[in-house]
Amino acid sequence: MTLPELFQPSLADKRSTIGLEFGGVEYTFGALDQAASRTATWLGTQGLTMGDRIAVYLPNCVELIHLYLASARLGLIFTPMNVLYREREIEHILTDAEPKLLLTTAALEPLSSEPAKTTGVRTVLVENLSTLPMDSNAAAAAQIDDDSIAALVYTSGTTGRPKGAMLTHENFSANARNINQCWRMAAEDRLLLSLPLFHVHGLGNGLHTWLSLGYRTRLLERFRKETILDEFLSFEPTVFFGVPTMYERLLDTPPEVARKIGGFIRLFVSGSAPLPAATLERFRDLFGHVILERYGMSETLMNLSNPYDAERRPGSVGFPMPNVSIRLVNADTGAEVEQGKTGEVLLKGPNVFRGYWRREEASAEAFTDDGFFYSGDLATCSADGYYTLQGRSKELIISSGFNIYPREIEEFLTEQSGVAEAAIVGEADPLKGEVPIGYVVMDQGCALDSEALQAACRSALASFKVPRRFCEVDTLPRNALGKVQKHLLSEA
What we know:
By secondary structure, the chain is of the alpha/beta class. The protein folds into 3 domains: 3-182, ANL, N-terminal domain (Rossmann fold, 3-Layer(aba) Sandwich), CATH 3.40.50; 223-393, ANL, N-terminal domain (Rossmann fold, 3-Layer(aba) Sandwich), CATH 3.40.50.12780; 396-491, GMP Synthetase, Chain A, domain 3, CATH 3.30.300.30. Helices cover 32% and strands 25% of the residues. It has 15 helices and 25 strands. The chain has helices at 3-13, 29-45, 62-74, 87-97, 109-119, 169-182, 200-213, 228-235, 244-250, 255-264, 277-287, 360-365, 406-414, 450-460, 486-491; strands spanning 18-22, 25-28, 53-57, 77-80, 101-104, 122-125, 149-154, 164-168, 190-193, 216-219, 239-242, 267-270, 292-297, 301-305, 319-320, 325-329, 343-348, 355-356, 373-381, 387-392, 397-399, 402-404, 419-429, 433-442, 470-472. The strands form 6 sheets. The chain has a 9-stranded mixed β-sheet with strand order 2-1-10-9-11-12-13-14-15, sandwiched between helices. The chain has a 4-stranded parallel β-sheet with strand order 4-3-5-6, sandwiched between helices. It has a 4-stranded antiparallel β-sheet with strand order 16-17-19-20. α4 (87-97) crosses α5 (109-119) and α6 packs across α7 (200-213). The longest helix has 17 residues, at 29-45. It is globular, with a radius of gyration of 23 Å. The model has no long low-confidence stretch (mean pLDDT 92).
């Protein structure tokens, strides 16, 4: 299914229904549809045709939605860029994607002007879109199909240079259908969306499920701890999509406010980074809800999810979503691992991307001969079918021949009194090959006691898993979606 087909019931059949709130302004689905048509017509006058890329360097805003809808209709390839990116990162994407147009704001334009000049990409400020001459007539729809590329999403680049993942119309549509089915999404829902739309978490889960069902959404420019409770209380959402750092901040909510929010919301979802079991349990006690953790990535959108109706197991990402196949294999031999053993996650389904933009060799290496995608993630599967992530294969630490999975140690450390966050990285050792090193963020008012932490680890973990030493840091470096950038820790 193409995206225009997925969105048609909302944009065409609910024209007078208010579908979006942003910045205190309400927008009907009809108004969004009309603005998208005018934007598509304008893009056509700029010489853009099916298959061309448009780069979008924007925070959450209504104009981003207009541009996305217009791109889908014209068969353009929407290329969003993280607003935290700076000149070097922007230039890499502009060089790699070769967009015909870059759209940004006056506030962000100084950061993108030099890369745009260097790569020869013309820039248009979205503040000027409303003043540009636009024909009110809808542009002719392109002859797109399910396999047409809808977006070029660059991987987070926690290691190496980001690669553009080619996501098709069907990738997004299948993902939205799965979420709607598995999480019981309905037209009566109300979504509070503070995730960035330049990322697939906000774009693929938030925007697509909203437009496919026509429920009401309040879009925030970003998550602000100082105002988020007011947004909850004034909008009364039934659904909230977040990342672990958001839920950590919500743990400061006064109990009476948390109970009130828990009374009108039906579903909290977490993804983009592992959710500590301790956070899930504290949140459950405070809000009266068990957060639903799921597993997805830029190249595949959603893969697994804890169940809506059955047990949502702490630390687990649940079961494969409909039509998603999964294997756990030995990274060296490719053979499937025994139940309960750790293996690399291989994925196949209509949600899995077509490949990497202009990277034929990397695309070929990313898939098995029978079409399974090498995720680079490690997981185990329990006897009753729950999958639990164990970190990235690149994060695997091998010490004296023993495999060490950082997630196991990190979870244990965050259970210790005074430890707010923890990250484990490998450090080269002349005798053992690698040894684990712990980086910890301590709770306010608590001091690091390395000897006590090592003693606790020795009492609960195999000796080779005990960190050689601990380093206290003020914060763990994270990317925009909350993933810890461990290479920055090891370089510190």
